[in-house]
Design a protein that fits this description.
single chain; 30% helix; six-stranded parallel sheet; alpha/beta; 13% strand
């Protein structure tokens, strides 16, 4: 136990009451939990704290300047776009994130979405609820297309730890896996340029970061290169796929289906092109792919590890 005071600004975004926070509590003399924190509350809540923990609450230069005791920011996620890293360096505040905690959860969600599309699962579920099976003239209802993954080709954009996990699951279903070249990355012999990859794949899944090179990576021209009836699954970041173009490709019937766990604005309070009711063969999940209890517990453990290592002056997972 030590005398350090830590403030978790938005712990309800991580803990649904089902996690063991003991490792995190043991890392600090005092752990103050706030379910959520508004922007104008950040500085007040961090006053006198040496450690800030944030999942999505923004900690900007002004908040750091108003928190002279702050020495460590723990990000309860991988992405740290909510932290002003330049200001953190200027104030000599160490920033550590969490990494690879959600690989099994996101990988299985990716395959679940792909399977839901290939089996027309949402359509069949809706048909049963509407009473169509009950009224069928035969024992089964086969009103919607069903396709097998066996023998199909999966394209991957992003082949790090997560993309690799998805590739292994896809291969277990008998799929052939092709890797695509990400914009802005050095060419590699084992990566196909988009214009070569897209016409070959029966399904495409995304596992890459959003940056200036990958924003709108798949627009109308790229989607048009995909096979008629091909499937697209995005569990990476909103903005990788142009949402208007995707809606148009689904409405026209060019794509056989799409599923996304991410949108450009989250939550989509101002609406979104992909939330329109008339888009066929589209599944939208609410950025929940990462959220298994096991994955969230790994975040708690990594936060505690990051804190303990920093206290021992040997910080790990440092990003700023």
């Amino acid at each position: 136990m030590n005398s350090r005071r830590a403030v978790f600004l938005d712990h309800a975004s991580l803990d649904l009451g089902d996690l063991d926070l003991a490792p995190l509590r043991q890392a600090f003399g005092e752990l103050e939990l706030h379910a959520q924190t508004a922007t104008d509350e950040v500085a007040e809540r961090l006053h006198g704290a040496q450690v800030a923990i944030s999942n999505k609450v923004r900690i900007d230069a002004a908040a750091m300047a108003a928190s002279p005791d702050l020495k460590l920011i723990l990000v309860a996620a991988t992405g740290a776009n909510n932290i002003d890293l330049d200001a953190a360096r200027a104030h000599r505040i160490t920033v550590c994130n969490c990494q690879a905690y959600g690989t099994p959860s996101v990988a299985q969600h990716t395959l679940a979405l792909l399977l839901a599309l290939t089996t027309s699962l949402p359509d069949y579920q809706a048909a049963v609820r509407a009473g169509r099976w009950q009224q069928s003239s035969q024992f089964c209802l086969l009103d919607f297309p069903i396709f097998e993954l066996e023998g199909k080709t999966l394209g991957l954009l992003g082949h790090g730890e997560l993309g690799g996990a998805v590739a292994r699951l896809a291969e277990a279903f008998g799929m052939r896996v092709l890797l695509g070249q990400l914009p802005g990355r050095p060419p590699r012999a084992d990566r196909l340029p988009l214009h070569e990859l897209l016409p070959q794949v029966d399904a495409l899944t995304l596992h890459c970061p959003l940056n200036e090179q990958t924003r709108d990576m798949l627009g109308a021209a790229e989607l048009a290169l995909m096979k008629p009836g091909a499937l697209l699954v995005n569990t990476a970041r909103g903005g990788l796929v142009n949402e208007e173009a995707l809606a148009a490709a689904l409405r026209s019937g060019h794509l056989g289906g799409a599923a996304t766990d991410v949108l450009t604005q989250e939550p989509p309070r101002d609406g979104n092109p992909l939330l329109a009711a008339d888009i066929p063969r589209l599944i939208v999940t609410p950025h929940s792919a990462w959220g298994s209890r096991e994955a969230r517990q790994r975040i708690v453990l990594q936060l505690a590890e990051n804190a303990t290592a920093w206290l021992k002056e040997s910080p790990v997972r440092v990003i700023g």
